[in-house]
Amino acid sequence: MDERRFYIASEEEILSGKVTDIYFARTRQILEKKGKENVETYAEIHAYNFPKDYRWAIAAGIYEAARLFEGKPINVYAFEEGEFFRIYEPILAIEGRYAEYGIYESSLLGILRHATSIATKAARLRLAAGDKTLLFFGIRSVHPAIAPMVDRYALIGGCDAVSSIIGAELAGVKPVGTMPHALILVFGSQAEAWKAFDEIMPEEVPRIALCDTLSDERFEALSAAKILGEKLYGVRFDTPGSRRGDMRKIVREARWTLDLAGYKHVKIFVSGGLNEENIRELADVADGFGVGTSIAFPPSIDLAMDLVEVNGKPFSKRGKLPGRKQVYRCEKLHDIIVPFHKSIERCPICGGRVEPLLKPLIKDGRIVRKILKPMEIRERVVERLREIASSEDFPEEPLLLIP
């Protein structure tokens, strides 16, 4: 009997192909027994549908996919980590003998789908928040074994920081956070807890007081400002939905009261079950947001892997576009899908120059792309979000073109 303490797969089990659906293992066995193990194939990872109201998604998990296939006798092409994509567009493609990589389909899709879904949701919240602070502290809603993964893709998608110690450490950033209600309850007094926090925490930790534990948010915020004065960086309202009322009115009331009393420097942060709609409603009155579950448990970007070429000939199941493909994009964000070996130089929509998005990731088992840090990838995502937001004509689907 397995005596592991937590029900998680080890790196060795993932890399050995043990984390797979049984029919992939049976398929490899059949191919080997029937002499089909050397059949050359080309597979693409793509989404043919998005969640409601989604027009794009953020490709994430690309580097983990590279680690999964490192050392395997295959070639892999992929979008850059953090690049956005539309439906139909292959964000990763595998060239090689199916018997060499088919058994990894479950792990590959699990990596890409989960990472992409988290990064995409974070990016949508980033757009909703505008230039306001966006923090992720949702690891309490996921299994601790995958907390660093969730933190990584929340950052890549556009969050400014994460709260978990291990997630921040692996991402190369500092964890951020305020204080829990438990601190105030243990002290039995908001004022004593705030003063203790100020006394014990080092200077570089911002003084942000939790102001909704025992009484009205406005009164607690004003009380914290009077006690900590200029040292108070901000207040946080974490009022649950069952007691919330109109959070926009609460924030505006607190803002007016703080300003009237001479505490204009005090920022207001909001948390507690926030989603895109809530953040859009509060973006012009609050200074920042803490988001958890809606990023950790986002709508799924349903990526699928399909063979589109067998022994050099276009071949796919029904409902899929046969043949290997390349995706080109111009500066106006028009995307064009063409057969892989039929390159184009100009966008047929606007005439602008285009660049291919599927680029080598693995060549004969060797990773050939520099692996960037999460915050470097985040810069690309944020820049792309600015372009999407400012685009006057953002097509929902790519153009399918055979030159």
What would you say this structure looks like, in words?
It is built from 14 helices and 19 strands. It has helices at 11-15, 22-33, 62-69, 98-101, 105-129, 147-156, 165-171, 181-187, 190-200, 217-228, 247-260, 276-282, 293-296, 374-390; strands at 40-46, 57-58, 75-78, 84-85, 92-97, 133-136, 161-162, 207-210, 232-237, 267-271, 288-291, 304-310, 313-314, 325-330, 335-339, 354-356, 359-363, 366-367, 399-400. Helix 3 packs antiparallel against helix 5 (105-129) and helix 9 crosses helix 10. The longest helix is centred in the first third of the chain and has 25 residues, at 105-129. The chain is elongated.
Please tag this protein with its features:
403 residues, alpha/beta, nicotinate phosphoribosyltransferase, TIM Barrel, seven-stranded antiparallel beta sheet, single chain
Looking at CATH, the homologous superfamily of the largest domain is nicotinate phosphoribosyltransferase
Largest sheet: 7 strands, antiparallel
The first-to-last residue Cα distance is: 59 Å
Mean pLDDT: 95
